């Protein structure tokens, strides 16, 4: 049986990116470039896994005309999917990128309302998909009405079937999901602050917070944007510095990083090599328009300049 990376995107979206140089308020703008793709953090992970040659399957919630666009776009990209359909419209997420001033403005809709019955349908769906999963990856936010313990419930389900889980979320989804002791958690700095209820003023604060979080998971990876990322497994801290690349758009860079790390694990690479591949994927995403659209040739090139060392 061919195994796949199973990603869960509760709040799938149409990601629409406009490139508008010298973007200002209270003016009419016409974009120099525009791209609309199936989006949401788990979908971005699945897309980069495909780029790296690893099978993936995207699941979660979709609804309405936007949901059909998402499914059709994934079909065109050759990314397998199996979503739970809900009432209402999947959300639209708009990013306005100003290359000249190196800014990025985002307007993200909330998503369609869901309820406990939708959550139970997702649980049944995931239970059917788990036997062929190498990892179960929880990504992103949730639409209104989603039970906040949904990731925790799915983690317990995956544990019964010996499938490792990876958690990349925020708020109560993240906090409650961590209580279920996933295999790995990947917060950014703001999410780490939420988990430990404290500010991250320097690297020592980050390391102390990671030690606290590691009591509930095997691996902790904290992403810090252009500053890179830190890994902790309960024994050692590894740091991969950010790779200097021309900025186009940061949308989906954390998801691309996560996909690279997962693909490194699937290849059974040493952890430092997993982090370098992850770093290259995140940086390759920054230099293109569209979330998760990193090109393989850019990933390969940037991997050669990636570094990783113990701190």
At the third CATH level, what is the topology name? UDP-N-acetylmuramoyl-L-alanine:D-glutamate ligase
Count of the domains: 1
- The CATH H-level superfamily is Ribokinase
For the record, the CATH class is: Alpha Beta
CATH architecture: 3-Layer(aba) Sandwich
Count of runs of 4 or more consecutive helical residues:
10
- Name the structural class: alpha/beta
On the 0 to 100 scale, the average pLDDT is: 96
Give the quaternary arrangement of the chains.
single chain
Which word captures the global form? globular
Biggest β-sheet: strands ordered side by side in the sheet? 5-4-1-8-9-10-11-12-13-14
Tell me the span between the first and last alpha carbons.
40 Å
Main sheet characteristics: 10 strands, mixed
Count the beta strands. 14
């Amino acid at each position: 049986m061919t195994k796949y990376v199973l990603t869960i995107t509760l709040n799938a979206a149409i990601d629409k990116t406009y490139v508008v140089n010298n973007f200002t308020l209270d003016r009419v703008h016409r974009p120099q470039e525009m791209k609309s793709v199936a989006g949401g953090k788990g979908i971005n992970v699945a897309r980069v896994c495909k780029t790296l040659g690893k099978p993936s399957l995207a699941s979660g919630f979709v609804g309405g005309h936007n949901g059909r666009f998402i499914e059709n776009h994934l079909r065109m990209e050759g990314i397998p999917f199996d979503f739970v359909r809900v009432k209402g419209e999947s959300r639209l997420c708009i990013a306005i990128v100003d290359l000249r001033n190196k800014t990025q403005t985002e307007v993200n809709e909330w998503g369609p309302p869901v309820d406990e019955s939708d959550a139970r349908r997702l649980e049944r769906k995931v239970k059917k998909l788990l036997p062929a999963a190498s990892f179960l990856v929880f990504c992103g936010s949730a639409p209104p009405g989603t039970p906040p313990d949904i990731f925790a419930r799915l983690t317990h389900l995956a544990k019964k079937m010996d499938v490792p889980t990876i958690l990349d979320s925020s708020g109560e989804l993240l906090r409650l999901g961590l209580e279920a002791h996933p295999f790995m958690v990947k917060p950014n700095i703001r999410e780490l602050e939420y988990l430990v209820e404290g500010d991250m003023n320097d690297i020592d604060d980050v390391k102390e917070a990671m030690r606290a979080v590691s009591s509930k998971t095997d691996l902790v990876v904290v992403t810090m944007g252009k500053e890179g990322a830190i890994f902790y497994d309960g024994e050692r801290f590894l740091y991969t510095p950010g790779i200097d690349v021309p900025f186009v758009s940061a949308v989906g860079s954390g998801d691309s990083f996560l996909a690279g790390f997962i693909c490194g694990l699937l290849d059974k690479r040493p952890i430092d090599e997993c982090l370098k591949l992850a770093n290259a994927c995140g940086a390759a995403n920054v230099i293109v328009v569209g979330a998760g659209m990193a090109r393989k040739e850019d990933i390969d090139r940037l991997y050669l300049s990636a570094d990783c060392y113990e701190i």
